[in-house]
Amino acid sequence: MTARPTASEQAAAVVRAHLRELDQPWNEDALARFSVELPGERKLKTSCSLAVGEHSLVVNAFVARRPDENEAGVHRWLLERNARLSGVAFAIDAIGDIYLVGRLPVGAVTPAELDRLLGVVLDAADSSFNTILELGFAESIRAEWRWRLARGESTRNLAAFERLRPEA
Question: pTM to 2 decimals?
Answer without folding.
Answer: 0.90
